Amino acid sequence: MKASWWINGRLNRNPWRPLRCRGRCVGLGPSRMSSEVVQTEQRKANLEAITRLGFAAYPNQFETTHSVSGLVEAYRDKTAAELEAPRVDTVTAGRIVSIRSFGKASFVVLSDGRSRLQVYVRQDALSERDYQLSKLLDIGDQVGVAGHLFRTKTNELSIWAAKLEFLAKCFLPLPEKWHGLQDVEVRYRQRYLDLIVNPDVRRVFETRTRTVAAIREFLNGHGFLEVETPMMQPIAGGALARPFVTHHNALDMNLFLRIAPELYLKRLTVGGIERVFEINRNFRNEGISTQHNPEFTMLEFYWAYVDYRRLMDFTEELLSTVARQVIGTTQFPFGDHTIDMSAPFRRLSLRDAAAERAGARLGTTVTVEELRHPDSARQLAVRLGVAPPKGGGAGKVAAAIFEALWEAELVQPTFVYDFPTEVSPLSKQKPGDPDTVERFELYVGGFEVANAFSELNDPVEQRRRFEAQLADRAAGDQEAHAMDDDYVRALEYGMPPAGGEGIGIDRLVMLLTNSPSIRDVILFPLLRPRSAE
RNA sequence: GGGCCGGUAGCUCAGUGGUAGAGCAUCUGACUUUUAAUCAGGUGGUCGUGGGUUCGAUCCCCACCCGGCUCACCA
User: Fold this and answer.
1) In whole angstroms, what is the distance from residue A299 CA to residue A115 CA?
2) Nearest to residue A192, comparing CAs of A210, A174, A211?
3) How many angstroms separate the CA atoms of A335 and A465, rounded?
4) Cα distance between residue A497 and residue A428, in whole Å
5) How far apart are CA A252 and CA A281, in angstroms?
6) Interatomic separation, CA of residue A108 and C1' of nucleotide B34, rounded (Å)
7) For the segment 150-169 of chain A, residues whose CB is within 7 A of strand B
8) Which of residues 389-448 of A have CB within 7 Å of strand B?
9) What ipTM score was computed for the predicted complex, to two decimals?
10) Is the distance between the Cβ of A531 and the closest atom of strand B smaller than 7 Å?
11) Nearest-5° angle of CA A270, CA A272, CA A274?
12) C-alpha distances in Å from residue A206, one per residue of A1, A355, A506, A508
């Protein structure tokens, strides 16, 4: 007895676990069962009664003429008179999300995940069998309804039910109708519940899908070819990050989940695909935050014969077009701000902006030259209270100073351009300035959304950069870039000058949906599994 | 990984060193146009886990688990 009690208690605390105490719970009596188990037993009894009425417990299909949201969209504005002549007969299906019962009549609200529609169920409009079914329905059940549209006394669009069909039973109680599901942990772990109960969640993910579709349409319209490149790679390159490791059994070799598609896409520009893009997942073995999920979706595109300046203009056009297409405007709320995604975006030279802000912070004049020399740059970092990076020279320090002084306040779209070569192993130097590369990052909402540069296509210089990265790696930088001989060999065949850019899709969607956390725009964000007990 | 905050009924949340509370959900009864329906009456909890202090712990202390925010790192 004690053991059964304990099992019930455990089930209470782990509602996402399948029920395992069937049989053991039976016979304990209501006083010994948790509310959830009681409700499950009641719903199982209801299902048995439903099958005794002759309904299949799990029918295989149900032919509808309309979806719930289709009906709502088509007839939302029709008056009661318009719904009568001619009468609109319909067959639809959905999940019951609410029941208001009045004895021999009831109002049942059906949801198809996008919209909700009320169904009016009354005894004298149904067969006795269907009426008996209606009394055995629980909130959460899947049902089919045939009937005609009308408006109630309170003018609500409704279906006057003539027939009911049972489609599937919901054994577990849904979260409360008014407050919905608030517990973010449960929302992420059981996203299906979140989708059932919180209508805005569906809209966020529809916006996400429309965003990706709009980007595809834009790039296709500009002559870019969409491709798919390896996500399991022998060398994880194209970014500075730690990869996940996996293993191929037949080849008995380790593979890395990609941290970026960059090097493969650039091989394709060598192969003559002058405009190419890919939208897919990257994997980086790093911490989790409101802006980081270990797997995230990235757009990367490469465009032969253009440089990073052309990419800035193109990015402005891309993002303002996508915003207009997806949410209908280039001005939208994000937290306490209103972001204006219309072109042109602000442009800040990294070292100029860092020097200017550093000078203002310290009440002196700081020159760009100070940021270019390792000793003076490090001293500057110390005076500013910025923790200087462990290894590396002036470039890493300058980038760290910029981020510390500027990043959080870059809410309106801002291009930060001209990065130190040291932190950009795949970017092309500016003519006459080998310490600086033609690279920019786009900040919006206080975080980085895009990263782009004129692509380094000089194989000798590329090999030198990789070797410098190997030195960093030897010095303990686990995120330093690995040597990729095959990639250098591809460059030796001659890669056209090209601009390339990566845009973080998740972060872009955060902006367009006013979501404060990346987990709100990823259906199943990575969470630590519940312990096995 | 560090700091701060949280975990109490299926859901949303109160609360106290002395047998655990509300609303919704659920059950019973009434009710054939409701909108968080209403009315009456019930059921439902090892208060995240494990130790400790105490006559007694859901509450105090310690450790751990899970989550949130934040810093560090990154896109």
Assistant:
1) 31
2) A174
3) 40
4) 9
5) 25
6) 10
7) 150, 152-156, 158
8) 389, 400, 404, 408, 441, 447-448
9) 0.90
10) yes
11) 100
12) 49, 43, 13, 14
Number of residues assigned to chain A: 533
Q: For chain B, which bases have at least one atom within 7 A of a protein Cβ?
A: 1, 9-13, 23-27, 30-38, 43-46, 48-49, 65-75
C1' (B28) to CA (A17) span, angstroms: 30
CA of A154 to C1' of B21 (A): 37
- In 3D space, the residue among A376, A392, A382 whose CA is nearest the CA of residue A469 turns out to be A392
Cα(A388)–Cα(A382) distance, rounded to whole angstroms?
A: 7
Could you tell me the pLDDT band of residue A362, with boundaries at 50, 70 and 90?
Answer: confident
Residues 285-314 of A with CB under 7 A from strand B: 286-294, 296
Instruction: Kindly determine whether the C-beta of residue A205 is less than 7 Å away from any atom of nucleic acid strand B.
Output: no
Say if CB A414 and CB A449 are below 8 A apart: no
Is the per-residue pLDDT at A220 higher than 50? yes
What is the C-alpha to C-alpha distance for residues A32 and A29, in angstroms, rounded to an integer? 6
Separation between the CA of A532 and the C1’ of B9 (whole angstroms) = 24
Question: How far is A73 from A84, CA to CA, in rounded Å?
Answer: 18
Q: Which residues of A171-187 are buried (b: 16+ CB within 10 A; e: fewer)?
A: bebbbeeeebbeeeeeb
Residue A478 has pLDDT above 70, yes or no: yes
Tell me the pTM: 0.90
* CA–CA dist A101, A336 (Å, integer): 43
Model pLDDT, residue A33: 66
**Are A165 and A59 a contacting pair, CB within 8 Å?**
yes
Backbone angles phi, psi at A280, to 5 degrees: -170, -175
Query: Residue A25 has which token pair?
Result: 């719970």
Spatial CB neighbours of A25, under 8 Å, sequence gap ≥ 6: A4, A8, A33, A37, A41
Residue A223 is encoded by which pair of tokens?
Answer: 């002559």
Nearest to A254 by CA among A263, A245, A262, A244: A245
Long-range contacts of the stretch A188-195 (C-beta < 8 A, 24+):
A188/A519, A188/A524, A188/A525, A188/A527, A189/A16, A189/A527, A189/A530, A190/A16, A191/A523, A191/A524, A195/A113
The answer for A196, left when phi > 0, alpha when psi is -120 to 50, beta otherwise, is alpha
Q: What is the pLDDT of residue A238?
A: 92
Task: Please give the Cα distance from A110 to A98 (Å, whole number).
Answer: 8
Give how far the C-alpha of residue A139 lies from the chain's centroid of Cα atoms, to the nearest Å. 30
- Give the integer Cα–Cα distance in Å for A365 and A148: 77
For chain A residues 449-478, those near strand B by a CB cutoff of 7 A are 449-451
